[in-house]
Amino acid sequence: MSDNQGMSRRGFVRNSALLGGLAAFGGALPGTAAAATTSSTSAVPRAGTRSAAGTVDIPNKYGKPFSVADDELFIFAANFKPLEYGANADRQASRYFDTVLGDAIRARFPGVKIKYATWDFPIRYEDIARAGRVPDLIIEDPRLRIDRDLEPLGWVQDMTPLVQQAGIDLTALNVGSVEQVKSRSDGGLYGVPLFIDESLLFYNKLIFDRFGVRYPALGSTYDDVYKVAQRLTRQDGIDHYKGYMQHPDNYLAMNQLGLYPFVPGSSEQPAPEDVKVNLTSAEWKAVANNLYRFLMIPRNNFTTVDDFFKGDMSFPGHLAMAVNNLSKLNAYALSPLYVEDDDAEEYAEWAKSVKIGVTSMPVLQRGSKAIYQPDTRAAFVPPQSAHKEQALDIVKYLVSEEMQTRISSYGMKAVLKTDAVVNAFGSAIPQLKAIDTSAVYWGENAVVKNYQNTEYWDIPLYKVFRQHVLKDGMDVDSSLLVTEQQDIPNYIKAQAAAGLTW
Questions:
Q1: For 264-305, how does the pLDDT look when each residue is reduced to its tens digit (9 = 90+)?
Q2: Burial of 28 from C-beta contacts in 10 A (0-12 / 13-18 / 19+)
Q3: With 0-12 CB in 10 A as exposed, 13-18 as middle and 19+ as buried, what is 248?
């Protein structure tokens, strides 16, 4: 009987890709770990090299010694840039983790030995997979990385029974974050949301004051902001100012209507050829056309939202408004937790050209409080964890009011919204004291909808605006149609042919 009998085509494609990828590392593939309970993926780790009894070495491209002992609870974090800052001589960065999370975890669980690492100082997912020492707790971006990284490795499981067993009340957490995790979890719940790198509207008070324009306020609509963007896209002597930047890919992917591009079918794990998308509904067209007008303001051509501070424009501080992440607010305010050491001097210089104001990102219509779907980071307990109970205890602690208050105090939006949590925001970041941050907890994150019986692929939404509108000169309706009917199907076909499912 074939080993693949009873496995879905999706699972076969994933296993084939994983076997090929790990085989490329060299050596034999001795076993298959437990699969995720709601996924067709199976993990195929190699046995790690043991440098001492109960210790696994994890070789890496930097040639830096890194090992995990059997009695250590291994936490790995990825895809949140502040976690990578402040690397020591061994290329291991732990400043942000220790300050915000790690020190509190160790104090709460003194009997637990914590081993921590972040991508890629000095190890990456492929290094861990090759060594076969799967992390006990992973902190990751569920929106993009469940399907790209965790699920292909078999490092996810339906945590629903574990969450219930631990007494974690998901209904108390940010609804948009919980639904976002579920939308990527093949009918289950692969992770528990921890915090949100919220999107806000940044504005440079120096530009507004120079031209006598009123600052944007909480609940401002796109219509309001569009009028201001037109006024502030202007030439003043040799100085040119742009009025507004919003990343078009994020705008579509995290849209404020909760629109999901995939069409529900008959399975949570459809074959690649059965994946269908819809970007041409009236709602998608309305959302896309709303941003299109900003991109068409003469001489407000899109470059990067980082132009608010210093991105691709020649001079710092020449962009009036930009939708950007909360972590960037902390960086622009010059918090050392959020700025890489090597960048601190440049950031301080650029800050002289910007007087930061921040408010809620624009809403689609007057009276709405719907902001982006959340840019969440979540906790995952892989099925291969040797310390599941301890890991789950830590997850429960991380979503407690005590830890959510701590997370909020260090400048991230918590997924638990209580008065204590909200009032604590930024209190541990002295650089935020001069900035009105009331927008952080304003509004409600959009909730993704109609995701049941779909499979998420990291489709090339950049084609809509950055390719077909800004480069090809298409109108919105045409760009949506071409992306839906040509670009995305071709992408999925090419990915499947390469043995990938994202």
A1: 999 998 999 999 999 999 999 999 999 999 999 999 999 999
A2: exposed
A3: buried
